[in-house]
Write a structure and sequence with these properties.
Shape: globular
Radius of gyration: 23 Å
CATH architecture of the largest domain: 3-Layer(aba) Sandwich
CATH topology of the largest domain: UDP-N-acetylmuramoyl-L-alanine:D-glutamate ligase
Strand content: 15-25%
CATH class of the largest domain: Alpha Beta
Protein name: UDP-N-acetylmuramoylalanine--D-glutamate ligase
Distance between the termini: 59 Å
Number of strands: 20
Binding site for ATP: 113-119
Enzyme class: ligase
Keywords: ATP-binding, Cell cycle, Cell division, Cell shape, Cell wall biogenesis/degradation, Cytoplasm, Ligase, Membrane, Nucleotide-binding, Peptidoglycan synthesis, Transmembrane, Transmembrane helix
Largest sheet: 6 strands, parallel
CATH superfamily of the largest domain: Mur-like, catalytic domain
Organism: Buchnera aphidicola (Muscaphis stroyani)
Oligomer: single chain
Strand order of the largest sheet: 7-8-6-9-10-11
Structural class: alpha/beta
């Protein structure tokens, strides 16, 4: 289907990297869009070309309601009242992913899920590149997707958040995967968890191959007419994690692929990530040896359960990518120590329910330092072992004076960082710098 944007009033919402990529996309077509940002001082304001009209500080209602096409950045909720009004007026509201999907000429691998999507996207990209593909990795990681169209690629790998999928309608993936779905970003969705889940699983629409977590297969298969699906996660799945003589193996149809002892990354969640990466690459007929060799040598991405300092027999772990309750549970499950766990928990909880952590805390030798916007309420979940500290910096300073050999200090906040930091990367880098200075 061909799309013609000439003569249309086009408005871009958001001046982040996505917004800038949208401007450049339309300029190359000889079209002048307008752009708005809610911030009074957007980071990339100086990158707006002089011939582009812009407004900052709020969402200009007149500009929105007089538009024919609006491209919305993922940081802006498509459920805002003014955007609902625009939809009622039949104004088209789409994402940059939708623009990309309309033009992409090569196979697309689409990866989403509450947790693990960056790791799987990166694993798949490295396997495919090692196998000789000219890959482009983007979306919620790497390049904005519209910039990927300019690269000499023959395989697109895109990581997708629910925010991006809200306004994506014609994405046709060669392979689509939803790694998992757990409560996250509930404050974004008026109808709560079920709406979040529906948006996540929409990635399966129009996909040739759907890779599905067996733990959720019943819920998904009821709603989607799947041409072909491949399962992972349980012993009855196509791809499984199995135990043989106290060793853990990644398997396909009960046949061993990799002994996890040969992998650099550890933990059940990472074994699942590797398993899904193999499943994806099998579907595009990549020689299994490329998958095995790449996964054996793959190490954790920054800010994902990453040991950043070890001194006086004390481990300091940066898991700043932990932005929801499930992330923190996974991190705690992966710690097998005799000493005390000093957990740094806090930020913007996004209205999520943290009570499920209570039974974890009861079983562990743990002290919890809760910080940030929702730190005070988080500290009330398990008062016996929790304390509220206003900032991450104050918490680190206090812990550094109390931790002893054999202990682990774990930053796994379980919350968004946006109350005190620009993003989880900035939070993790701040924590790393602080720990190295203090220790």
């Amino acid at each position: 289907m061909s799309y013609n944007y000439f003569g249309k009033k086009i408005l871009i919402l958001g001046m982040g990297l996505t917004g800038i990529s949208c401007i450049n996309y339309f300029l190359k077509k000889g079209i002048l869009p307008k752009i708005i940002d809610e911030s009074h001082s957007p980071t990339f304001l100086n990158q707006i070309p002089k011939n582009i009209m812009y407004k900052i500080g709020n969402l200009e209602e007149n500009w929105i309601l007089e538009s024919d096409l609006i491209i919305i950045s993922p940081g802006i909720s498509s459920f805002k009242p003014i955007l609902k009004k625009a939809r009622l007026m039949k104004i088209e509201i789409i994402s940059d992913i939708e623009l990309f999907a309309r033009e992409a000429k090569y196979p697309i691998i689409s990866i989403t899920g509450t947790n693990g999507k960056s790791t799987v996207s990166t694993m798949v990209e490295r396997i495919a590149r090692n196998a000789g593909y000219k890959t482009a990795l983007g979306g919620n990681i790497g390049l904005p997707v519209l910039n990927m169209l300019e690269k000499k690629s023959n395989l697109y790998i895109i990581e997708l958040s629910s925010f991006q999928l809200e306004t994506t309608f014609h994405l046709k993936s060669k392979i689509a995967v939803v790694l998992n779905i757990s409560e996250d970003h509930i404050n974004r969705y008026p109808e709560g968890y079920q709406q979040y889940k529906k948006i996540k699983t929409s990635v399966y629409n129009n996909a040739d191959v759907c890779i599905i977590n067996s733990n959720e297969i019943l819920n998904i298969s009821e709603k989607f007419s799947l041409k072909k699906y491949v399962s992972f996660g349980t012993k009855n799945s196509n791809y499984q994690i199995r135990y043989y003589r106290k060793k853990i193996f990644l398997c396909h149809k009960n046949k061993k692929i990799i002994n996890t002892n040969q992998m650099l990354i550890k933990g059940h969640h990472n074994y699942i990530n590797a398993l899904v990466s193999i499943a994806i690459c099998d579907q595009i007929k990549i020689d299994r040896n490329y998958s095995i060799n790449t996964i054996k040598n793959f190490s954790n991405l920054p800010h994902r359960f990453q040991t950043i300092h070890f001194k006086n027999q004390i481990h300091w772990i940066n898991d700043s990518k932990s932005t929801n309750v499930e992330n923190t549970k996974v991190a705690l499950k992966n710690l097998k120590i005799k000493g005390t766990i000093w957990l740094l928990l806090g930020g913007d909880s996004k209205s999520a329910n943290f009570n499920s952590l209570k039974h974890f805390f009861k079983k562990l030798k743990i002290k919890i330092y809760c910080f940030g916007k929702d730190g005070n309420s988080l500290a009330k979940i398990y008062k016996k072992k929790s304390i509220y500290i206003k900032s991450l910096e104050q918490a680190v300073i206090l812990i550094s004076k109390k931790a002893i050999p054999g202990d682990v200090v774990l930053l796994s906040p379980g919350c968004s960082s946006l109350d005190q930091f620009s993003n989880f990367q900035e939070r993790g880098e701040f924590f790393t710098k602080l720990v190295k200075e203090i220790s």
